[in-house]
Specification:
The complex is a heterodimer.
Chain A (H helix, E strand, L loop, with lengths): L1 H7 L1 H28 L2 E2 L7 E2 L3 H8 L1 H33 L4 H12 L6 H11 L6 H8 L16 H7 L8 H11 L3 H9 L4 H12 L1 H17 L2 H6 L11 H10 L4 H25 L7
Antiparallel strand pairs in A: 1-2
Chain B lengths: L7 H25 L3 H6 L11 H41 L5 H9 L6 H14 L7 H23 L4 H9 L4 H12 L1 H17 L2 H6 L8 H11 L4 H36 L1
Classes of the chains: A mainly alpha, B mainly alpha.
Chain lengths: ~300, ~270
């Protein structure tokens, strides 16, 4: 009976072949291969060999991982603040402007910098931090603060801070649009009744609007977690992890272990650890930031 | 009621933040018009003679990499749009055993992050002999881009009234004809959204093309401009002009479809 229904629907399965062939070859297979090989010694030549938890034991004592985890934690927390503070402020201010036209143009203007490729923006910041010609040191010179000049990316004490600060004021991007869309979807009658009750704009924002935007805060938190733990490209370009261990993150170390020394097993273990962190972190965020309306 | 509309500081804060956001882009354009010497000796002053030659030289240096990126992005987006709409249509309108299970099997893949795939996919692509070939970019991009695409398309196709399909079937049209004649034209807006968000992501991708393309002639823009900035470190004017030229494709894309883009970013993000 079942079999006949399956045969009858063969046309439908046939049309799904492209999707599943691509997903199998370039998503399922590598994902499972990565999980399996995290427990193996796997190099450029020869077959992989099962080694149990040896890769994870090595990670526990690897200085690059130890410094990397601390740096990554700092980067995640600062990325989170960066995705919240100014994007939320700008979205709130734009939403409360009266003129429809002004709202539209400001939203467009804030999205505008995405016309520059990410790499170009990263390289612009690389130039801004340039010790001799960069905008930062040039400005400090111009205003008579020569003493504050630094090799912003070459000084181990400030390199991580420089990477955190790049992109200031961090408004462009997804979180700004998510908050703005959230504000636009707020039910008008609730807001109006809050105003009639005599709430000031600020207390209305704090007591009425922000609690209703918890789904948006949750989404931004999860997306930031996912992006932050994977975005080692910016560090690769700016400092390559240096000076010393100052800006290493686990993702960058995974890339170097793969690409430079072909230690695929160890690199897979780092990748698996990052994946599990992202997965558990996302579940935790969903649990902690459950809004009252949904439960 | 909306007293804060009249508060001057709200606008002041907005315009200050806007100016700071646009600063790197402005700096790029300003410096791209100056000669190397003038960048070094008189950083703040406007150019005495506008150096259009920066642009011609930069174009000669990087136009191949931009074409590489455009080729990869266009082919990948074409593939993503095709596969997403096809499977989205089947999942939305066909009834067959295992439909939910198959859909969940694809949807679960949104949880697989790039970091888990990077190492094994690199080895796989190497074993398949695809290193230094555009397929090493295009095939994984389609595989990954289709997931959210299918989700968006399925949602959209569920809203099309059944009558459209019924009358076509009565006329004896096959499923693929229905897909081509009805589904594709109706879903142009949602497919534009899917194409634009993926184009943006692919044009910007850096680490994966850095790993799989070694050949100088194949490199995509993000990788080539990274090389250029490290190799020609002292050719500042030329480098900034190259940055500006490389920004053109995304500028044109956004001029053509800003509203699709904003919708795509908001929806793609919300559904991820």
């Amino acid at each position: 009976m079942m079999w006949r229904r399956i045969v009858k629907a063969r046309g439908s399965y046939f049309l799904l072949i492209p999707s599943f062939a691509l997903a199998g070859l370039f998503l399922y297979y590598p994902a499972l291969s990565g999980i399996y090989h995290a427990f193996t010694r796997w190099q450029a030549v020869g077959a992989s060999r099962f080694v149990g938890l040896a890769n994870f034991a090595e990670m526990a004592t690897d200085l690059f991982i130890r410094h990397g985890v601390v740096n990554q934690a700092i980067l995640f927390l600062t990325d989170l603040l960066k995705a919240m503070i100014f994007p939320f402020t700008v979205a709130a201010l734009i939403y409360h402007l009266r003129s429809e036209r002004e709202r539209y143009w400001l939203r467009t203007a804030f999205v505008l910098p995405i016309i520059t490729p990410t790499m170009v923006l990263v390289l612009m910041w690389y130039f801004i931090y340039d010790p001799n010609l960069g905008l930062l040191n040039q400005t400090l010179d111009a205003v008579g603060l020569e003493g504050a000049k630094r090799p912003w990316l070459g000084d181990p004490g400030v390199a991580l801070g420089s990477i955190i600060a790049m992109g200031f004021p961090w408004v462009t991007g997804l979180s700004f649009l998510i908050f703005l869309a959230g504000f636009n979807d707020l039910p008008k009658d609730v807001l109006d009744s809050a105003s009639l009750d005599g709430a000031t704009p600020l207390s209305r924002l704090w007591r009425v609007e922000m609690p209703m935007l918890i789904p948006q805060f949750r989404l931004v938190t999860v997306l930031t977690l996912i992006a932050s733990l994977q975005d080692f490209g910016r560090i690769l370009v700016m400092t390559s992890g240096g000076p010393g261990f100052a800006t290493y993150v686990p993702g960058l170390w995974m890339y170097e272990q793969t690409f430079q020394v072909s230690r695929f097993g160890y690199a897979s273990a780092i990748g698996l650890a990052l994946f599990v962190t992202i997965l558990l972190g996302s579940l935790l965020i969903f649990r902690l930031l459950r809004s009252d309306m949904e439960s | 009621m909306r007293k804060q509309n009249h508060v001057w500081w709200a606008r002041a804060v907005l315009f200050l933040l806007l100016a700071l956001s646009l600063l790197p882009v402005a700096l790029m354009l300003f410096l791209s018009l100056k000669s190397n010497l003038e960048i070094i000796t008189s950083f703040w002053r406007p150019p005495t003679r506008i150096q259009w030659s920066n642009y011609t030289e930069a174009f000669a240096t990087i136009h191949w990499s931009i074409l590489s990126s455009l080729f990869v992005a266009v082919v990948s987006c074409g593939g993503i749009v095709f596969v997403s709409s096809l499977s989205g249509f089947v999942f939305a309108r066909h009834r067959f055993p295992g439909r939910e299970l198959l859909f969940i099997m694809l949807l679960a893949l949104v949880m697989v992050p790039q970091v888990l795939l990077l190492v094994p996919l690199f080895v796989e692509v190497k074993q398949l002999g695809l290193l230094d070939s555009y397929w090493a970019l295009i095939l994984p991009y389609i595989a990954q881009g289709q997931i959210v695409g299918i989700l968006l398309c399925r949602g959209f196709f569920s809203t099309i009234p059944e009558d459209y399909f019924e009358s076509a079937r009565l006329d004896g049209a096959g499923e693929f004809t229905i897909y081509r004649r009805i589904v594709l034209p109706l879903s142009l807006p949602i497919l534009t959204v899917v194409a634009i968000i993926n184009f943006h992501g692919i044009y910007n991708d850096f680490v994966w093309p850095l790993m799989v393309l070694q050949n100088q002639h194949l490199k995509t823009f993000a990788v080539a401009i990274f090389d250029l900035s490290t190799v020609y470190r002292s050719e500042y004017g030329l480098t900034f002009a190259a940055y500006a030229i490389g920004s053109l494709p995304l500028t044109l894309l956004l001029l053509a479809g800003m509203k699709y883009f904003i919708r795509g970013l908001s929806e793609g993000g919300l559904k991820a």
